[in-house]
Specification:
heterodimer, A: flat, B: mainly alpha, about 70% helix, about 0% strand, disordered N terminus
């Protein structure tokens, strides 16, 4: 493989890693997980709006403390 | 509650971890790390009079962290705690997609770090810089390695073995009901105090600063917009919304500079009293509003800003390579007459720097939330110990920012108004009297450079840190811009202090509703509006009144309240380490009990000495009751003592020192109650000569294969590949949702 190709591959992998991390960290990836889960079990997924609303309700009941 | 004797301890050593010989390559690497660390410490310790680069502090800290993480944390995890990856964690056993949820170790590390890191590690080191750079550096690094990170990891481990029980629950079940109630009261009281002190820092940073008020006020509509965006416009697109939010935030900071000299600026030049009112109203409204509207989006903003600024500062430090301006050990270390806070190096440096070295508050997050999401037991080393090392690194960066600014400016900013007189002329005279060079022109120029009215007596640590950050970043990235960077730093601190204030108010409200709900069932119902509103009002009222006391204190709120906050936080650490030691012994690990007992002994020595001095010292600058007596006697004789200016202020000093003294004594007594109860339990456990029953959950075999550390080793990669081959891809832990609803 050419040097440019190697560089491109490494930056590509790093970029995908960063994107993966940000999606996981921000919780956006939960929607993807849910869709995959529904596909595996043959459920009809709920709408994104409904899904996020339930997630927000769960956070409402489980406050996360922030430290000093 | 199930009662078992730990099984894994009798089953022979769990696989992995300890016992492998180091390869020649790792020996070379670790010897090199040790050498760099040793050289850095030597330079810091021996340098006298010549100019020392601040990078030595950075390298000394980083090398020490690396060695501690590699060797000491590993020893604790595998030898003492005996983490066992054959056991399923509560996240795996009880997975419900909400609070119990197997989470990638790197993602959980980020969440845990975001939850523990706040303004504490930024402010404490700045104040402690009055003792010189060396005491603070040593305590931050040694403290985190042997106390703070150990506490976080051990508490996380024991909570994880108990399905993520909270600190208070564990104290009640493992130590006793008396200790449990004492711990519950202590936790609630400390939370109120922390909220008051954090809010005080914001008030001091924003008072008389229209630029700051403008930018911070705009964060509220920005957060509301993000909330609506995520709820209505484009549900769930968090990164998009946060990206927009960050851009708007930067515009808000820049925009603050444009309003200078306009009528708007005049309207936004708020006194401290008005800011207190604004914060109290804000705190109340935020805690009763639905979280999606304000709290959650603000949390996204502050988390991304927090991590961004820390990375930026680390890069800035490497590029700017600033030179330390402070002495290694200052004249105030022994004399105890420093203007920033009273008292000598021992015990007060250890009290002032709480977060960053040892913070009891972390035990509340290490028990409860995080342990319910850990995928493998061995990951507590990365998340608990590693997360705290990261916070310590933040504290070191803050310390560097405080010791590289001109020391005349440092003292002019951090001495209370009663001492500096409030004008550049009087402040310069005061600072010259301390033995530092500065002139009224220098002080005026420094405030003009960042477009603030004045920098004299801008106490609280946040403005000093912002000046330091502005100096480092404008040097590193060129082009001046000190005013932008200053307000950028203020915004960053205020943003996550406000997040801590509204999240803390909410948690306090839940605690209050839960506790009162034991007696009055209806009040514990979280959906009952009147209960919610009353509980929120009580919590806000409590921290709001402490805040008001701090803001109007003629002696200077920060130097009166910050020691109280630091001691309370460390006493909470005392409670957490007591619990950890009790559990070590109950699990039959008496041999390793020193791991938590030594930091416990140290924490108790410093905090109880400090508490004793704050209550009984005959020096009115240190002892609250002597201070009270001094002012009460003077008032009885019809005198007015400086810095009080009239009878009203005299009475205020008397009330405040009484309140502070009583609180101080109460915290110490609560900790001693927990300790006394623990001693009884420990004596009983030692007499039993071996493991005694605890509330640890029985072991269940795990089906998850995940790496332990940040990076997977070749063996771990092979094990994961093998697992995937056996059970099919995608079955590694993720995606077992219950029918009740989607994951959080």
């Amino acid at each position: 493989m050419s040097a440019a190709g190697t560089v491109r591959e490494i930056t590509g992998r790093a970029w995908r890693g960063v994107c993966w991390y940000l999606r996981e960290f921000s919780g956006e990836a939960r929607w993807d997980d849910y869709l995959r889960h529904c596909a595996e079990h043959g459920h009809e997924p709920m709408s994104r709006r409904e899904f996020e609303r339930r997630r927000a309700d769960a956070i409402e009941r489980n406050p996360v403390s922030r430290c000093c | 509650m199930s009662t078992t004797v730990s099984r894994a301890d009798t089953d022979g050593p769990p696989p992995g971890g300890v016992g492998r010989r180091l390869s020649a390559r790792s020996i070379v690497i670790w010897v090199a790390v040790a050498l760099v660390g040793a050289v850095s410490w030597t330079v810091l310790a021996l340098a006298r009079g010549e100019s020392v680069s601040a990078l030595w502090i950075l390298f000394a800290a980083l090398c020490s962290y690396a060695i501690a993480y590699r060797f000491y944390a590993r020893f604790i995890a595998y030898k003492a705690l005996r983490v066992d990856d054959r056991r399923a964690t509560p996240a795996e056993r009880l997975q419900n997609g909400r609070d119990f949820d197997v989470t990638d170790r790197r993602v959980l590390f980020g969440h845990h770090f975001a939850a523990i890191a706040g303004a504490g590690p930024l402010v404490g080191p700045v104040l402690a810089a009055q003792m010189g750079y060396l005491p603070g550096t040593i305590w931050i690094v040694v403290g985190v390695i042997f106390a703070g990170a150990v506490q976080d990891m051990v508490v996380m481990f024991f909570s994880m073995r108990r399905n993520g029980k909270s600190l208070g629950q564990m104290v009640r079940e493992e130590i006793g009901i008396v200790g449990g109630i004492a711990a519950l009261i202590a936790v609630f009281a400390i939370m109120i105090l922390i909220l008051a002190v954090l809010a005080l820092i914001v008030v001091n940073a924003l008072a008389e600063s229209p630029w700051g008020v403008f930018s911070i006020a705009l964060t509220i509509p920005i957060a509301l917009f993000m909330g609506v965006y995520l709820r209505v416009l484009r549900p769930g697109r968090v990164l998009e919304a946060t990206g927009i939010g960050v851009v708007l935030l930067l515009l808000a900071i820049v925009g603050g500079g444009w309003i200078e000299g306009t009528e708007l600026a005049e309207a936004l030049t708020l006194s401290k009293e008005w800011l207190v009112l604004a914060l109290v109203v804000y705190g109340f409204v935020a805690s009763v509003l639905p979280v999606w509207l304000l709290l959650t989006p603000r949390d996204y903003l502050s988390t991304f800003m927090k991590i961004g600024v820390i990375v930026l500062l680390a890069i800035g430090l490497l590029i700017a390579r600033p030179v330390i301006q402070a002495d290694a050990i200052s004249q105030f270390a022994v004399a105890g007459t420093g203007p920033v806070f009273a008292g000598s190096l021992f015990p007060f440096v250890f009290i002032t720097i709480a977060c960053g070295a040892l913070s009891g508050f972390h035990a509340l997050i290490s028990s409860g939330t995080t342990p319910k999401m850990v995928a493998k037991e061995s990951q507590v080393r990365l998340i608990g110990y590693g997360g705290m090392l990261m916070e310590s690194f933040v504290a070191i960066s803050a310390l560097i920012a405080a010791v590289v600014i001109d020391q005349g400016l440092y003292y002019a900013m951090n001495a209370p108004a009663g001492a500096t007189g409030g004008t550049p002329e009087t402040a310069a005279a005061f600072v010259n009297g301390l033995g530092f060079d500065t002139t009224a022109q220098d002080l005026a120029a420094a405030s003009a450079a960042i477009q603030e009215e004045t920098l004299v007596s801008r106490t609280g640590g946040a403005p000093t840190l912002a000046v330091g950050i502005a100096q480092i970043l404008s040097t590193a990235f060129g082009g001046g811009g000190a005013a932008f960077w200053y307000h950028f730093a203020i915004m960053f601190e205020a943003l996550f202090i406000l997040t801590a204030v509204d999240a803390g108010t909410r948690v306090g409200r839940f605690m209050l509703q839960d506790t009162i709900g034991n007696v009055w069932k209806k009040f514990g119902d979280l959906s009952w509006r009147p209960g919610t509103i009353i509980a929120s009002a009580v919590v806000v009222g409590l921290w709001g009144s402490m805040l008001y006391i701090g803001v109007t204190d003629p002696l200077g709120g920060v130097n009166q309240l910050f020691p109280l906050f630091g001691i309370a936080n460390q006493l909470l650490a005392g409670i957490a380490l007591t619990l950890a030691t009790v559990l070590m012994i109950k699990h039959g690990k008496l041999k390793y009990a020193w791991i938590t007992a030594v930091p416990l002994a140290w924490a108790l020595t410093t905090t109880l000495t400090a508490s004793f001095q704050k209550v009984f010292s005959s020096d009115p600058r240190v002892g609250y009751f002597t201070q009270r007596q001094l002012y009460a006697d003077a008032l009885a004789n019809g005198e007015v003592l400086a810095p009080a200016q009239d009878v009203g202020q005299m009475e205020q000093v008397i009330t405040n020192s009484t309140v502070n003294g009583v609180l101080q004594a109460a915290f110490a007594l609560l900790t001693l109650v927990v300790l006394a109860n623990a001693v009884v339990v420990i004596a009983r456990a030692i007499r039993a000569r071996g493991p005694v029953p605890t509330t640890e959950e029985p072991a269940v075999p795990s089906n998850i294969v995940e790496p332990s550390g940040l990076f997977a080793t070749p063996e771990e990669k092979a094990a994961i590949a093998e697992q995937e081959r056996l059970v099919g891809a995608g079955a590694r832990g993720h995606g077992t949702f219950t029918q009740e609803g989607p994951p959080r």
